[in-house]
């Protein structure tokens, strides 16, 4: 039987998820598109052939004809809607972040542990991107030797909002790196410093962070939300015996008038389209089998990303290195990615 999916939030990401469910997820049906803005819900539903539209998220989660939910509404709704899904016994793919507050992430974790089974998969889609998959595999193969450093660059064309700040670069953009670095290196981040150069205008300047890991590695992360030239994400993992670098993802190169060029995507939806499709298919498999996908991120990962971001904001504001002090990982999240042992 086809999995009937409801999408909550019909903005940029909700519309993207709706297209993926409708076109790229065999075995899934786009059942409902929900948005407070009825016209926006209808326009996405019509474009993607959804069966119905709604404006009340809690009502959608409770519907008997909805098997699973994708939450793509504004960030502050992610935690409460994930909890509503847990209460209703529905699996949810929640866009990042789970919450910008680590305390609120803990509340979702408590609800999920009380339910005793996995409900929440978190949308840190980069784990499904082939470049990070290959970096992780290269490290696991032993060919690179012990990991020493991971360098990361995350550049957006421009900020999503005019009043975007350095702190928002850390809480909104950098969590992707916080998550994927933990995932690729397989260790925890333990401290953070954050620095900013000066721009000549009033736009937010890049934020450069240096983090230590529990295994004695160094991680650098540059977040540049106003890079102007294109959406550009780079990473290099340096081991004691070699290094692995992400290539710019471009299907073609144009050689003309004594010059050679490739294209950049305008934002993450193009660059990571394949990763989103893989992630969403893996969510469908989770709904079908009850087995939590091996590489997906969960509420624990959401908590870690938020906690690191909180320490990063403190580091930026104070100019001082900040410790990252996580709680002990609950057994529920440390053990088999299925039901409570
Ligand atoms: C946005 O929310 C994302 O998740 C993108 O992947 C990231 O590149 C961007 O900076 C964020 O604003």
TrEMBL record:
Primary enzyme class: oxidoreductase
Domain GFO/IDH/MocA-like oxidoreductase: start-end pairs: 132-244
Entry keyword annotation includes Oxidoreductase: yes
Domain Gfo/Idh/MocA-like oxidoreductase N-terminal positions: 3-123
SUPFAM superfamilies membership: Glyceraldehyde-3-phosphate dehydrogenase-like, C-terminal domain (SSF55347), NAD(P)-binding Rossmann-fold domains (SSF51735)
Classification via Pfam families: GFO_IDH_MocA, GFO_IDH_MocA_C3
EC number in record: 1.1.1.18
Gene Ontology terms, MF aspect: inositol 2-dehydrogenase (NAD+) activity; nucleotide binding
Keyword field contains Transcription: no
Leader peptide range in chain numbering: none
Keyword terms of this UniProt record: Oxidoreductase
Cited PANTHER family: BINDING ROSSMANN FOLD OXIDOREDUCTASE, PUTATIVE (AFU_ORTHOLOGUE AFUA_2G10240)-RELATED, NAD(P)-BINDING ROSSMANN-FOLD SUPERFAMILY PROTEIN-RELATED
Family statement: Belongs to the Gfo/Idh/MocA family.
Protein name, per record: Inositol 2-dehydrogenase
Organism encoding this protein: Antarctobacter heliothermus
Gene name, Swiss-Prot/TrEMBL: iolG
